[in-house]
């Protein structure tokens, strides 16, 4: 981080009565003053309030960022806006990167700060919520949730983890490690294989271990009649993009940054 200060500046919220407004001001100010663009390492800037689609941007490389903050654990899913707007963004490939900030309410201190790169956003991680009831002010409105547990570990990059600031070089390297996904027209299969590797829980694994997910992958891709061929194809692509190393005899290893 730029300052290493993980505590919010409470003076900024002195003029606000709503707790929600106070938290918005505090968290947005902290991000503006304490973080950097994970793509290029330069300072990020805040959009004017109510700018549709994003909260921050990088003047140097034009990356956009949306901020979501929670006082408790970040959890398995994050509440987002309108479902139709999210799907429209995904289809147009105009989704901002996502900042997730987890803070302690008693100390007003940042505990975890994560970025999810936009190239991990696909329709499979978006959950459609039930329409608001008839007696609601926005009756019939349909929101969505972002399912964080459907995102591979490589798509959740920590600036701060459990109160510990990660080295800037590591954050930038982790970001660059998966930028190849932006070149792909359909990343769904690649993300599925990355998730399967994560579930194994080891840096080293075998082809046969990934074959063990054949039934699960068949359920996700019912139109594909050659699941094992597709698995090998995706592993080869991950190897070519330096996400994996092929060790011979059906063995692979995840590349460390």
Structure summary:
By secondary structure, this protein is an alpha+beta fold. The protein has helices at residues 19-34, 83-92, 168-177, 188-200, 207-211, 214-220, 227-240; strands at residues 44-46, 56-58, 64-70, 77-82, 97-104, 109-116, 126-128, 143-147, 157-161, 164-165, 204-206, 244-248, 251-254. It folds into 2 domains: 10-183, Dam replacing family, catalytic PD-(D/E)XK domain (PvuII Endonuclease, Chain A); 188-254, Winged helix-like DNA-binding domain superfamily/Winged helix DNA-binding domain (Arc Repressor Mutant, subunit A), CATH 1.10.10.
Describe the 3D structure.
The protein is of the alpha+beta class and 257 residues long. The protein has two domains: 10-183, 3-Layer(aba) Sandwich (PvuII Endonuclease, Chain A); 188-254, Arc Repressor Mutant, subunit A (Orthogonal Bundle), CATH 1.10.10.10. Helix content is 29%, strand content 24%. It is built from seven helices and 13 strands. It has helices at residues 19-34, 83-92, 168-177, 188-200, 207-211, 214-220, 227-240; strands at 44-46, 56-58, 64-70, 77-82, 97-104, 109-116, 126-128, 143-147, 157-161, 164-165, 204-206, 244-248, 251-254. The strands form three sheets. A seven-stranded mixed sheet has the order 1-2-3-5-6-9-10. The relative contact order is 0.10.
């Amino acid at each position: 981080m730029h300052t290493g200060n993980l505590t919010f500046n409470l003076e900024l919220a002195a003029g606000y009565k709503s707790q929600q407004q106070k938290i918005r001001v505090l968290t947005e100010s902290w991000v503006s003053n304490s973080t950097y663009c994970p793509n290029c390492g330069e300072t990020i800037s805040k959009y004017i309030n109510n700018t549709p689609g994003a909260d921050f941007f990088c003047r140097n490389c034009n990356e956009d960022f949306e901020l979501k903050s929670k006082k408790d654990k970040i959890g398995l899913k994050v509440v987002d806006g309108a479902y139709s707007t999210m799907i429209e963004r995904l289809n147009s490939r105009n989704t901002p990167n996502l900042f997730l900030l987890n803070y302690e309410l008693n100390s007003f201190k940042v505990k975890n700060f994560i970025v999810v790169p936009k190239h991990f956003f696909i329709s499979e991680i978006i959950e459609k919520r039930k329409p608001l009831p008839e007696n609601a002010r926005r009756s019939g409105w349909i929101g969505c949730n972002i399912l964080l547990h459907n995102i591979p570990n490589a798509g959740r990059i920590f600036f701060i983890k459990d109160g510990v600031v990660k080295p800037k070089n590591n954050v930038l390297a982790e970001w660059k490690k998966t930028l190849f996904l932006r070149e792909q027209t359909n990343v769904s299969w690649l993300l599925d294989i990355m998730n399967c590797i994560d579930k194994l829980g080891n840096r080293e694994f075998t082809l046969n271990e990934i074959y063990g997910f054949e039934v699960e992958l068949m359920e996700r891709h019912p139109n594909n009649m050659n699941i094992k061929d597709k698995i090998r194809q995706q592993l080869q692509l991950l190897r070519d993009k330096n996400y994996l190393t092929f060790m011979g005899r059906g063995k692979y290893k995840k590349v460390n940054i």
